[in-house]
Amino acid sequence: MTPTLDELRQEEDSLHLSHFDYATAWELGSSLRAKAVEAGLPVGIEVFHGSAPVFLSLLPGSTPDNVDWLRRKRAVALRFHHSSLYMRRLCEAKGVEFAMRYHLPASDFVASGGAVPITVRGSGVVGVVTVSGLPDTEDHAMVVAALRALNEGHSRIRPLVS
User: Fold this and answer.
1) Is the pLDDT confidence value at 29 over 50?
2) How would you write the chain as a 3-class SS string?
3) Strands of 52-58's sheet, edge to edge?
4) Over pLDDT 70: what percentage of the chain?
5) Fewest beta carbons within 10 Å, which of 74, 87, 104, 116?
6) What's the rounded Cα separation, in Å, for the pair 13 and 8?
7) pLDDT value, residue 1
8) First to last CA, the chain
9) Assigned domain for 78 exists
């Protein structure tokens, strides 16, 4: 089931982190990768801290095309400070196509679920985590679950620096 705009907004508000550094970015990417490997998912995963790519992994069954989807989803999350799924649902609710509404080239931006901005309490958006390879709502759910686990301290890998 695709979440509503209200559900997505509440979800975004619940995912604010207390801190985010390179070690945390690596932890987040590693956690996502471990879960994807365990489930045999053909996904690409990336984590950016600001404009710096800290983590990138393509798992068996994914293709170089997933890297392009990662880039275009990331661009949406960073530009609008909302998840790429939120932006898709917003445009659907308004009955407009994303590219037409915002006059952005589809070659650089795609409103398809899977990219979630990383927000630090008191600082705002400091990065983005993106998954590509599954249906977009599943990409999104995978990212949200990893952010939630990181936020709650349930990840198997602990950050080296806090």
Assistant:
1) yes
2) CCCCHHHHHHHHHHCCECCCCHHHHHHHHHHHHHHHHHHCCCCEEEEEECCEEEEEEECCCCCHHHHHHHHHHHHHHHHHCCCHHHHHHHHHHHCCCHHHHHCCCCCCCCCCCCEEEEEECCCEEEEEEEEECCCHHHHHHHHHHHHHHHHHCCCCCCCCCC
3) 52-58, 44-49, 124-132, 115-120
4) 94
5) 104
6) 9
7) 80
8) 36
9) yes
Q: Is 72 exposed, middle or buried (0-12, 13-18, 19+ CB in 10 A)?
A: buried
Using pLDDT thresholds of 50, 70 and 90, give the confidence band for residue 135.
Answer: very high
| Rg of the Cα atoms in the chain | 15
CA distance 15 to 150: 9
CATH number of the domain encompassing residue 33 = 3.30.450.150
Backbone torsions φ then ψ of 54, nearest 5 degrees: -100, -30
CB of 129 closer than 8 Å to CB of 46 = yes
The answer as to whether 157 is a domain residue is no
Whether 159 maps to a domain, the answer reads: no
**Tally of domains in the chain:** 1
